[in-house]
Amino acid sequence: MENLHKIKQDICDIGQRIYNRQFAAANDGNITVRVSENEVLCTPTLHCKGFLKPDDIALVDMTGKQISGRKKRSSEALLHLEIYKQRDDIRSVVHCHPPHATAFAIAREPIPQCILPEVEVFLGDVPITKYETPGGQAFADTIIPYVNKTNVMILANHGTVSYGETVEQAYWWTEILDSYCRMLMLAKQLGNVSFLNEEKSRELLELKQQWGYADPRNTPDFKDCDICANDIFRESWADTGVERRAFPAPPPIKTSSPAAASSAPQGVDEAALVKAITDEVIRRMGS
């Protein structure tokens, strides 16, 4: 049996960290932890996350119905519940409005890849969802196309949502993302954003796999993708209004096999083939 009071205290601690980092103004944001197959602890609505007490945390079922708690559960609990329904491995979800990442949500600017090692290892490609009015099931459904390929998302014109095995891990992804977005803005002001090359980018993907962090770029489905070009979620851009405006596209990096590196058939000397074709053209011109 899980120690519910300890988990509630953990939620309060993360709420204070979110508030101290200015990731949630006033009553912004919400935090949940799944404690059983059908029970989820949830922060209350209209309550500042920086001043939560364990007694403030509500308990809801997987439909969103409140089971216990003296304060009403968050109005955006359905978003969290949808993540739990889609991902059996997830035990906690954190939603808030970190200012730098939320700026990308408002601009609908894709998060550049292959720049900062920590982001490549811990986050990977970060999608931006389609906008929907917060609170209802339609809003919760916006995460479905992306939830199995990432542990952090940007919610268009709204904020971020991240999730993990513990409430602290779920919060980490948000903190890493916002810190990265701030660095990108500062580098942009300096006038240059430098990308990692293919060799170093692949080293990070290998390290990520060794550490047990999933990344679609390490799966057969995306073996031929451009690992630095946001290829994992690019097909969603037209529907979500995402477009590169502030940051340039990275230099092209394509996976290519030795057999595909040459257009000539295997076993054929390209130089000899070119010479033979040239000789034949000259012969015909002279005939």
Account of the 3D structure:
The structure is a single chain. The protein has 9 helices and 7 strands. It has about 290 residues and is α+β, with helices and mostly antiparallel strands. The chain has a 7-stranded antiparallel sheet with strand order 4-3-2-1-5-7-6, with helices on both faces. Helix 3 crosses helix 6. The radius of gyration is 24 Å and the shape is elongated. About 40% of the residues are buried.
Q: Helix segment count? A: 9
Overall pLDDT confidence: 91
According to DSSP, the number of beta strands is 7
Output the radius of gyration: 24 Å
What is the N-to-C order of secondary-structure elements (H for helix, E for strand)? HEEEEHEHHHEEHHHH
Strand order in the largest sheet: 4-3-2-1-5-7-6
Structural class: alpha+beta
For the largest beta-sheet, the strand count, sense and barrel status come to: 7 strands, antiparallel
> Which term fits the overall shape?
elongated
Distance between the termini: 92 Å
Strand content: 5-15%
Unreliable segments (pLDDT under 50, ≥5 consecutive)?
256-268
Residue share in helix = 25-40%
Question: Key features?
Answer:
seven-stranded antiparallel sheet; alpha+beta; 37% helix; 287 residues; elongated
Concise description?
The chain is α+β, with helices and mostly antiparallel strands and 287 residues long. The chain has helices at 4-20, 77-86, 99-107, 117-122, 137-141, 167-190, 198-210, 237-240, 270-286, and strands at residues 30-36, 39-42, 58-61, 66-68, 92-96, 152-155, 159-164.
